[in-house]
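Example (one chain per record):
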Amino acid sequence: MKSTSIFTYLSVILVLCLLGIYGLITLHASNIADIMKENINVIIEIEDQHVKNELIETLKQFPQVKKESIRFIPKEKALSIMNVKLESDFLLEDSENPFADIILLNVLYDFIEESKMKRLCEEIESMKGVTSASFQSDTYTYLESNVRRVSRLLLIVGFIISIFAFALIYSTIQLSLYAERFKIRTMELVGAPWYYIRRPFILKAFRIAFWSSLVSIGIIVILLLLLHLQFEHFGSVINIFYVLVIFLLMTLVSVLITQLASYFVVNKYLGAEKSRFYS
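Predicted structure:
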């Protein structure tokens, strides 16, 4: 009996942890995508370094621009980076540096749409001292296609996990009540009404759901804290409201499934023939 109860708790905890982690990933997928999109660079080539300070101050006035992301990269630094990557001198001696002085910046995710990015680049390109302005369109297209692909994948995974969760919890509750099926038979023989017979098993299922939810929430909280300590920017991805919503849903789903499973399993034995208790 004790081993059956332990198995029941462990099974429900496992399912709730899976559902909770899936829910957190799904709700935060858009946050992660937005943060990745905010790392798309707008590349501005300028005529010379003399105009950089004026341009940078002007760019800070744009509402689309992340002001802290603006940085200047001189052409000499670009050349040295290329030399390091190639592990050799990129240019022959006395050759002219082909790189231009550039300003890099990132855009707030509210403005990261292809049409808006193109308009921004056109506006910047019209500024005095700017040779050209462009954004990493290939990176944008890659992220957009992958976000759609991940969304479809999450939908499929969610459907599979939901079926798995209900099936496992139902089977676990069924196994737990199978060990107590003769109690149901005894109470029925002494004339106890069906609602009275169901009550202790429904209450037991509620206790299983409640304590399993608490343990599962505790496990996920510890996991989130470990990730926060491990990754510097993890806190900027996590939305506390989403986390609380998932914790509430975990508890509700746990209670709902265990209650339904207990109700149907007990009903299977109520009014059943004697032979069914030995099968």
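Caption: Residues 52 and 248 are 52 Å apart (CA to CA).
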